[in-house]
């Protein structure tokens, strides 16, 4: 099965796992891979995974360069992966691991929020989040 074109029904899984896989794609294929995983997840579904990263630390970046792996095509920096995940998932979390990599999880939108978020240009998305928080505070359930 080709993970860049999964032959699975849309919205057919609750959880997808990606352990040490992202670094084996170039940038554009990495984006396609995340999109494919998002398509097979049900609303509210989770993606969990790990991938190496330098975390913006010079020592980790030097280690990744020194231990260069010919099969690692792209080391996604945390902010890159966060942006990629936010295209398809409502909630995203990245947690640094001691080895220089990070653990990530993302939850797919349950409904309309993801459609609205994807229609809003990237520079305005923080404003959308702030507006959502303001509405929640103003109109508690």
Account of the 3D structure:
It is a single chain. The chain has 141 residues and is of the alpha+beta class. It has 2 domains: 13-110, Vaccinia Virus protein VP39 (Rossmann fold, 3-Layer(aba) Sandwich); 111-141, no CATH class. Helix content is 38%, strand content 23%. Strands 1-2-4-3 form a 4-stranded mixed beta sheet. Strand 3 and strand 4 form a beta hairpin. The mean pLDDT is 83.
Report the radius of gyration as a whole number of Å: 16 Å
Uncertain regions spanning at least 5 consecutive residues: none
Structural class: alpha+beta
Strand order of the largest sheet: 1-2-4-3
Give a count of the beta strands, DSSP E runs of length 2 or more: 4
Task: Please give a handful of descriptors for the protein shown.
Rossmann fold; 4 strands; four-stranded mixed β-sheet; 141 residues; 2 domains; globular; 5 helices; alpha+beta
